[in-house]
Specification:
DNA polymerase, domain 1, Phosphorylase Kinase, domain 1, binds adenosine monophosphate, nucleotide-binding, Transferase(Phosphotransferase), domain 1, 3 domains, about 400 residues, glycoprotein
């Protein structure tokens, strides 16, 4: 997919940087929340191309969306449809996800293009993620990535979650199946439907089964529904385990009751094969019984950045002592794996322009690889020597896939 290089018009939050998420359920009229947080799209601008999955409310499709200003160019999109004949309640529940998603704007959170509510079928249009959900993606690519590539993905997930927790949004269903992956291996948080489910079904996991994703949920959230960003951090630890084990099912075929009992007794998942000790330690930190002892998402981002800065820290693994980790270093040679804009600038000794890149909203390797001298000048980077150095390094960016 061709993503336009966005320079200059950073989407400035209307309400300052500390904008809080508004729960659409606080609106008496759910349609009002939709009008406020989601752009209405004319169905004529949408072409459905293929069905790619089944959602709770109807098919999920891949398609194209014609975009402003002249509606000639089009982009790939994912289209969630509401089954024809659904009840008014189902329609509201379906659109709630869009009212939530529409409030977020972050490179690691699925972006809502808009909704179709004035014609049938009702649709939610989001950016298209070529590699689908993270759990399946890892299973079909078992063992194929370098540790630094996995760290780049994990860093993206932590960064998206850090943004959501800063907005006071608690996800409650963070799991690899709810993270989507695009063609550049960028991971984005998706699936904003669960918060409502749990509120309405207080006895969810005991009587109805499966409403609380037990294997991913912190003990205090299971025991007394204490869902917080700290319980999301517990779930992040499980996602970290899923990523490092390439999509293994947490606690394998254990029953939910066995998982709950074992966790209560202090059992924790073992380190996945070849998992660097530092990453396993991070999982254990996320699984601290006391939620106040767990790291925050922003400290997880810093920890991952630090690990990426010193790859030798990734050489120690717990369960393969004979392995000196040389394959990790070997794999890194000649690669320019993009973890974050700041780290990249640091590597090329151009950190002084960190703020310039932030202001221009340059967050992906793809955006940076397309920079020109004119862009840099527009951003206020005018020294020709520095421009040359940045552009030379930008051309070498290996966008992984
Ligand atoms: P969901 O109802 O959100 O769980 O979506 C069902 C399935 O559709 C997911 O497991 C993905 O494989 C796929 N899917 C959902 N959203 C997208 C998207 N934005 N891009 C690509 N695939 C998607």
């Amino acid at each position: 997919m061709e993503t336009p290089l966005v320079l200059g018009f950073v989407t400035t939050p209307l309400f300052g940087n500390s904008r809080s998420y508004v729960d659409p359920h606080t609106y008496e009229d759910p349609n009002q929340a939709i009008r406020e947080f989601a752009r209405e799209i004319d169905a004529n601008y949408i072409t459905i191309e293929a069905i790619i999955g089944g959602g709770e409310f109807g098919d999920v499709c891949r398609g194209r969306l014609k975009i402003p200003p002249n509606f000639v160019q089009d982009i790939d999109v994912a289209i969630k449809t509401l089954k024809p004949g659904s009840s008014e309640k189902a329609r509201c529940d379906f659109l709630t996800e869009a009212s939530i998603m529409g409030q977020f704007d972050h490179p690691n959170v699925i972006y809502l293009q808009g909704v179709v509510t004035r014609s049938n079928p009702v649709m939610i249009i989001t950016e298209y993620m070529e590699n689908g959900s993270l759990d399946t993606f890892l299973r079909v690519n078992d063992g194929k990535f370098q540790t630094l590539q996995l760290i780049a993905m994990l860093r993206g997930i932590a960064s998206g979650m850090s943004y959501l927790s800063d907005m006071n949004y608690v996800h409650r269903d963070l799991a690899a199946r709810n993270v989507l992956v695009n063609s550049q291996l960028i991971c984005k948080i998706a699936d904003f439907g669960l918060s409502r489910e749990i509120e309405n079904a207080s006895d969810a996991y005991t009587t109805r089964g499966g409403k609380i994703p037990v294997r991913w949920t912190a003990p205090e959230a299971i025991a007394f529904r204490k869902f917080t960003s700290a319980s999301d951090v517990w779930s992040y630890g499980v996602v970290l385990w899923e990523v490092m084990s390439y999509g293994e099912r947490p606690y394998w075929n254990w029953s939910n009751q066995d998982v709950i009992k074992s966790i209560e007794k202090g059992y924790r998942l073992p380190a996945p094969m070849d998992c660097p000790e530092a990453l396993y330690q991070l999982m254990l930190d996320c699984w601290q019984k006391q939620r106040t002892h767990r790291p925050t998402f922003s400290s997880i981002v810093s920890t991952l950045d630090n690990l990426a800065r010193q790859p030798q820290a990734l050489l120690t693994t717990r369960n393969s002592p004979e392995n000196d980790g040389s394959h990790i270093l070997e794999g890194q040679r000649g690669h320019n794996i993009f973890i974050s804009t700041d780290l990249w600038l640091e590597n090329i000794k151009m950190s002084r322009y960190s703020q310039h890149f932030k202001e221009a909203n340059l967050v992906t390797a793809q955006q940076i690889s397309r920079l020109t001298a004119q862009h840099l000048s527009d951003m206020g980077i005018t020294l020709v020597g520095h421009q040359k150095k940045i552009l030379h390094q930008a051309r070498q960016l290996d966008t992984i896939i």
